[in-house]
Amino acid sequence: MEPDLSAFILAGGKSTRMGTDKAFVLLEGRTLLARMLDLACKITSNVHIVGDPAKFAPFAPTIEDIFPGCGPLAGIHAALHASQTDLNVILAVDVPFVSQTLLDYFIFRAKNSNANVTLACAAGGLQPLCAVYRRAFADAAEQALRAGRHKIDALFDHTSTQVIEEAELEGAGFSPRIFRNLNAPQDLAAAQE
Q1: Is the pLDDT of residue 189 over 70?
Q2: Strands (E) located in the chain
């Protein structure tokens, strides 16, 4: 349990491809939200949901986007803006295969670096929605959002970023498949096979 760490679950997406709110989709008898809350609570007691308080306040303290309708970058910005800790784990609600050991690995790497972001490059690209961010990243996020730029990856060229390559992850025992996210009913069906 890390006292100097916060965890934020991004649950504010529109879930248009899934056709229903992804947070409440069942996988192996549990909602994606319940799975991610359990995971986050294993690494810190300071856990929040970024999303609509009307939906999520019964489950955990909730934070709303300061820049609504601007995608995941706005969720990351809101989380970091509200955070009281330097290190912050950001998790999308729809990455149910992420493990505590992976998060512990990322946290260890983040603590031993001055980088503002620690994330993986695996499964075909950067994984900004399962990463550790320092609170200072909020400034870069806010500048981008105010300028109408909502792409998270574009900010990594302008801030100190520690990228953990797929080969390193595999060497540490993590499959790139751990980052699979559930965007559509067929993703959910494949995950249940």
Answers
A1: no
A2: 5-10, 26-27, 30-31, 47-50, 62-63, 87-92, 117-122, 125-126, 130-134, 161-165
Contact call for residues 67 and 145 (beta carbons, < 8 A): yes
Sequential DSSP letters for 119-150: EEEETTEE-TTEEEEETTHHHHHHHHHHTT--
Tell me the two tokens of residue 189: 């069906």
- List the one residue out of 59, 162, 86 whose CA is nearest residue 118: 162
- For the segment 129-149, the average pLDDT, to the nearest whole number, is 96
Q: Is the dihedral of CA 62, 82, 178, 111 positive or negative?
A: negative
Q: Where are the domains of the chain?
A: 5-191
Q: What CATH fold (topology level) applies to the domain 5-191?
A: Spore Coat Polysaccharide Biosynthesis Protein SpsA; Chain A (3.90.550)
